[in-house]
Fold each of these.
Amino acid sequence: MRRPSLPRVRTTAVMTLAMLASACGSARMSAPQAPGYPAEAKAAMFEAAPSAPAQAAAIAADQAQTASPRFNTEQYAEIVENPFLDSARNPLSTFSIDVDTASYSNVRRFLTDGSLPPRGAVRIEELINYFHYEYPQPVDGAPFSVTTEVAACPWQPEHQLMRVGLQGKTLPQDAIPPRNLVFLVDVSGSMNDPRKLPLLKSAFRMLVDQLRPEDHVAIAVYAGASGLALPPTSGADKQQILGALDSLEAGGSTNGAEGIELAYRTARTQFRNGGVNRVILATDGDFNVGTTSQDALVQLIERERQSGVFLTVLGFGTGNTKDSTMEMLADKGNGNYAYIDTIGEARKVLVEQAGATLVTIAKDVKIQVEFNPNYVRSYRLIGYENRILRAEDFNDDRKDAGEIGAGHSVTALYELVPNGVASPAGDVDPLKYQAGAAPTNAAGTDELLTIKLRYKAPDADDSRLLSTVVRKSDVRLDGGSADLRFASSVAAFGMILRGSEHKGTATYALARQLAERGLGGDPQGHRREFLTLVDAAARLDNKQPGAVQVAR
């Protein structure tokens, strides 16, 4: 079975419906036709609402898109895989951490629905970071611990696989500071689907159940225009909050930028110094009126994040999911991005991992690895393609990077080519105007590489530095720990789905074998679920596990 077709623009049929709707009259929409808003919010909204022809056009397009599964307008950013780099010419590898997990649950949705995911939907770092790993808790006041491990690479035995793991400190419930939350809910016509607004309501109900009296929640909604469905309300008034949630209905076009501005403005009015200040945007990402270009949305989010309010993006639905927009918003908004495909995923993100999702313990976290060319001939960072930074960005505190939440873990894998082994990085001619840099005394030691990390406290502007050294003697001669085996299984699976030129001997059978050996305790069953996804992908690829996979 092949991947679904994902056009980047609406089809002529949808555009025709929109133009017909645009010519259907000039009367302004009346308040009763704007579902999802309390009566007092409707009047103010419709004063600034777009003209009837513009709204009708957008609504017709939304309805046509939602009504027929033939119109698939999902959008994913192109991913250009990281290449192997020669360590003598490129000794530094610098990137921002990424705690998003949306790609894994989205891939699961595709496989469960009976199709292979498009390549752009497969972000390998998010597949790996979906799972919990047994990293130690930090000590000595640090916000996170650092774990490293090097062993043989399972899909290229002559190479080595290095794991870098960060573990954010876990906060007990009574240590979580007061929360100032704004639920920003997309109630446009495209959300009128069982996997969208109804699932969204169920997800937020679970979060509301966790609120304490010192927490406050507001609900902002947007369609063709935005409004406040619930002013800031104490967590003690759960019935009032749930009542406002239950009253939301879908209809209209999607002016997401206006809703974002309202949500941040509301969060600022209740800003809690030392507390959790966060907007939680729940949407399919299909902004179709107002500010719709990604560049303009980036500027909006970058401006709003200066207020100290963080952002969580929850993606919902199928058919018109704008994954690239939602990932970008979370990236630029000091936030995280999760895709909610089931009620179980909602529970994982908003209840089981509420601290990691909502409570930031370190921001602008960057990693820089320096390789010793005496031991490492070349290397490749697996995943994180859209998080790569320049070497100079590491020390630049003005450069934005990723955040770690309480209890979050972050894993990065490097494939290393030892000296004496043929390198996929290739060769270049000798330089004419300069000679290679002379090695230092440290190059003659047993140091394989040095890992440096920079991070800021959530309310700080200046970064702090951590570093650790990996030595040649640290290289394990076996297949590594159960966690490394499992992480390598997920990486192999991702490379197969992407048709990676670097997947070596990776097959579905190898991915399954590694996962079985790395199941560990698996109290939530997430790793065992992964086995079913490997089997589903193998069946959809019309091959049995164990068959050699050809890049598609």
Amino acid sequence: MNGNDKSRRLSKDADGAAEDATLVSRVRNGEAEAFGLLVDRHQGDVLALARSLVRDAVETEDMCQEAFIRALGNIDLLSDPRKFRPWLRRIVFGTCVDWMRTFRPALFRGTSPHGVDALHSELPSAPARLERAEMRARVAAAVESLPEKYRAPIVLFHRDGLSLQRVADHLGAPAGTVKSWLHRARAQLKVILEESQMQDAIESAAPTEVFDTERKERALFHLTNGDSAAETLRACEVPGTVGIWAELLWDGPLPAGGIETPAWRAARADFYETAWFGAFAGAGGEMASGWDEAMEAHADYDEVVLWFEHDLFDQLLLIRHLAWYASRALGDTSLSLTCIGSFPGIEDFRGLGQLNEDEMASLFETRGDVSEEQHLLAQRAWTAFCSGDPFEIERTIQGNTSALPFLAAALRRFLEDLPDSSNGLTKSQRLVLESVGTATRTGRDLFSEHYERDQNPYLSSTQFFAMLGELESATTPLVEREGAALGMGETELMSEGIRITNAGRDVLAGRSDSVSLNGISRWLGPSHLTTDEFPWRWDRASGCVVLL
């Protein structure tokens, strides 16, 4: 392909992506005919992709129909409408995998999402597609004619896109042996294809993956919120390295002005020694240092992909990370984001940890490039959150936060856990007292009900039971255990009966004030504040921060 042809093709691809974006916008505005136009534009590609996977003409039609139905139902999840085509291809793959897993398990075990990308590159025109289809059929037949010893490694490496080492692991052979098998398999393929007079066509039109040992793949680093999401990402074989960064930023010391220093990291490590029943004592600082080192290696990657969700825990991670990356010279490393607050088919969506491998993989192509507007908003919000002044956080909420659509609700939930102006309870504490106000409940039941009643929950079980323990061990206890207290750990509180005290009833009714009874000791920004230093309250009636 000469330079002019390449330029024309790139221009055509860009025009197609722009047209897709326009049609997606029209669909979201309720124009049903716009989705019909999207179907017309992409039906050929969808049919070809489904046919290559399910290998059944009748089922191919059904897979295409189902894929378009799923695309229509999920179209609001597409963060970058210009990427409708690769997003649709991922949906087609997921639809076919679901069918194969149920009806053709042997076929399913030989399929990988990487194979879709390797076998179906950009197709510029209908004649070219027909030529490619013929070429692929010949290549597939040639591969099938190879001895099993050579067929398996060439399929795993070239079609499924596994690395040389992963192919070796899969086959239980040394990497050097696999490399030798691949070389011999290519040599045999070349002879077969020359005999069928297809070699010239393949060398000029086929993806280079069929014959080249070296494949240039983008180096990706995926950063997410914890082990659950990270393990699913690794299992679904989205390409790249997966890391986590899971600081609980809503509690404990924050860096002054949002600028992290070794002194701040040391203060966080000290905080972990006693916080939340000492659940992270001795390990918190070490874990976080490892997370920091992984992020510092951004120059080793072509793209960093951030995977987060809508709650306070994740939104604080998100603004921290965006502010952190904005302060670095990223060079050629790009930054992209997948951030969701719901997922089709999951009625009570709580987070990425609920998704299975196919569901997680389906989000990969919906990621969008991080914009300058998102960087700037994150920097403002992170600076405000680290200021130690709830009014600064409130001003952020009152501004334009549309660039990060879940941020305002998450920060508001943080402010709702300031002491209430009527009784001194945080929202989390109030929900607990309301739950035990009429009957004794086990800690396990209280935790489950808390997540059902709180519209924007963010406490893990460890933090929830630490809060419950504080209500019990306060100078004037607001809850008590039904029997003799066996201990203050999460396990004991989870299984024992919890009931409200008379003092708790008075506070809940507004006849007394929790802070007046028991004081307050809390981190806000870089400072640890006690009762006399803590003038802020949350006024539920007005939905605003107020001063005493």
Amino acid sequence: VDCLESWIRSLEPGVVVDPDPPVAGDAFTVASRVKYLLDGGALTREELEAVGNGDGTVNNDALESLAAGWMWGNGGGRVPTAAFFEKRRQFLELTLQQNPASRRFFYQLRNAAASGVADSLNESFIRTAERIVDEDSDFRTIASTNEWEVTTLVLLALTMTDHPTILRRSGVGDKNFLGNNISEMVRSPHFNREADAEDWRTVTLITDSREAPAGTAEDQLDLEACGAAYESEAFGELVRDGRPRIYDWTVMHPGDDLANEDGENGPQDVYTRCVPEHAQQLRAIREGDYLKLRAPRVGFFTTPSFFATWETNADNQFRVTVNQAMIIGTGRIFSPGDATGVNTDLSAVDPVLFPATSECFGCHKNLDRMRTAFTGVFDGVHSRYTEPPEPVPAPDFAFQGQSVSVTTLQEWAVALASHPEFARAWVLKLCQWANSIACDPGHEEVLRLAEEFEASGYQLNELFLRFFSSRLVSDTSFQAGTRTPGAQVSIARRGHYCHAMRTRLLRVNEARDNVSGQTSNSADLCALNGVETLSSSIPNDQFTRGTVEFNQPKLFGALTAVAFEGLCTRSANALVESRGRAVFDANEPSETLDLLTSHMLGFPAGSARFETERSVLQDLFDAQAREPTCADADQLAASLDGEGSCGLGLSNEDALRNVWSIVCQSPTLTGLGL
């Protein structure tokens, strides 16, 4: 019996010891990293004193208070500071995938780069998301909103892509036709590339006039009279009575009867005659107005930029579009093991390509049912509105535990927005962006933050605040190879580094009361003349096709080191000069060394770290500027250690330029997590 009892007890689980136990991080390290990520600036002495516990570890409640100030300033409210606005935009650009590799938008618009439209198109939905965040609205509406931030050129692109590509009689698209090529369109004197790319406003994109409030005024182009109207004296600013209005563009569609015809009232004729009035109508659409289209434009995944980022084709038929939308909205991809119940038959799944006995069927049984929400309204080559020659199978939404019967793309968008994985997906995106590691979906802090994000009504502002004061940021570990998020050390990728350098150089100018430096481009290190190629060689955060996690280079390579060295060396002449209006005045070496230590390296004045690093920079400067010239390397080494009496005999300007180059490449600036 004793042997049996002993054997049974040997099967009982013992105390599980965490092989990588997290510990509270050092206050200076944690707070410096959080400020670097949110604001870009250096930690101040007051901030350091406020954020630490008695034992030197970080106080998370105090960190939350500081993070709020770094994001929104100390004036109350949640208006983002200029520095945080830029960092938040970097995050949204990375996560919403609205930045195609080519600026041409070739299949949709033939050549958007030459016309200057690309920037407006790429920025449109980022601005839409920013409005949702600033209003503390439900962030899930990024997947379903039809209230977009637009310019006249964005509206032009939306109207042009609201009909199929116009073909010649031979069946080939006419590259010079106004309705196909936005570059040709904006060459018209009736559009102004500069002004029409900057007149931002919020416009609701509808497919049915009944989506607008009753009594909303409605305007249409008069295809017969629009040319004559332009020639008349009455053509001018559209008369407004204060009510919102709908601009019904759908009347402009050439339709099947005109798709291959020239001559009077053919597509080319109609476009040529109506461009002046169309330009006027688009420019007259104001804040709160409506644009009526045939194609439903809802959410981040129906923008021209998203279609251009993830170009589909006749074989792919929007499968890539659906998969990337799932990655953004849910942080998940299609899986053969997904047993979520479906709501439609198999008519959308090609039995030849994906037979029910194949491994591919496991994913395509869900994916292909979803894509018909797109193929019913957009063509699979040009991503323009289309009326399919034959009815497409009914769409469906069945994905990773959520099954919703849908009939339209708008309903599909709402189903994506309400997916139960949305909250956790966005916690994980923020966690990787900040910590340079794919975080554990089951981590207790990830689950807690997802619950709080949901409880807040999906306010992204609240998620940012709670995340950057959470243990996902403040905990560290002393284990080699640890996966503790807050313990990661990584290269500072281009977006983080260039923003931090710009912010810190601007604050150097503010500290010196250098008004000209605050308003010039001299603080924009990565955009200085002659260094753009070098700065662009610094790796950046990237999204990739079919992958949930970001691509984040973490290690210094030879080319990266060369890029930082070249950038810092070549920028020295522009930043360090012997004149008062320079960013760093070489006539004031003591002031310059103070600023390099506190504002650039980030060691608060008056702290022990400041005194140590300031002394190192002083020795470095003295060894270069001191005379007489050292006779050999040993003498120079002694001078660098603060023990010699010789130097290199350089001018203050050249010596400080060399010091700047070293500071600019320091790990506290080129690294994250140190």
